[in-house]
Amino acid sequence: MRLSKAEQLRRLNKSELAEFFGVSVQAVDGWCRRNCPVIERGAPGRPWAFDAVEVAKWRFGVKDAPEGIDPDEMLPSDRKAWYESETKRRALQVQDRELIPAQEVERVVATAFSAIAQGLRSLPDNIERRTGCTPDIVEAIDIALDAEMDALADKLTELVALDLEEEVTPA
After folding, report:
1. What are 81-96's pLDDT values in tens digits?
2. How far apart are CA 112 and CA 96, in angstroms?
3. How far apart are the first and last CA of the chain?
4. What is the distance between the alpha carbons of residues 101 and 109, in angstroms, rounded to a whole number?
């Protein structure tokens, strides 16, 4: 059975799990006695295997709803472990392309809109050459395209403003 890269990074042995959560291996042994989720129990010559995300859910009482967690209500050591696990989870999501950094999205969107704008700007000249339209018609097309591109730019500005408001406004 082949594991995805995310599953490989999530799969830890006892000492790795202890290091991940900043606790001792003995603490992990105690978790195992209290029904911590285990992928594979260890045996002579075979290490224990844990899914770090499942252990974090078990440890912090998460029921597949990370939005319901309030780290401010946790003990400081649990809060630290939670933030570290969230940081690692997000890094995995970026690595697996489940999350895309905002700067990358902005760059791709800017490049796409630049190409679209360039194509639209060349339309009046292309139409004039291909159809033999009068300069008055070409100018009207040019004015209409400018108005539409301005309206599109205004809509994009509104979207950015709404996005910034959502970041600032607490939910």
Report:
1. 888 988 998 888 888 8
2. 23
3. 42
4. 13
Tokens describing residue 39: 């992928």
Distances (CA, A) of 49 to 15, 16, 46, 151: 10, 10, 9, 56
Q: How far apart are CA 138 and CA 70, in angstroms?
A: 60
Q: Directed axis angle between helix 76-95 and helix 14-21, to 10°? A: 110
**What pLDDT, in 10s, does the model give residues 30-51?**
999 888 999 999 889 899 999 9
- CA-nearest of 64, 55, 53, 63 to 10 is 53
Report the distance separating Cα 116 and Cα 122, nearest Å: 10
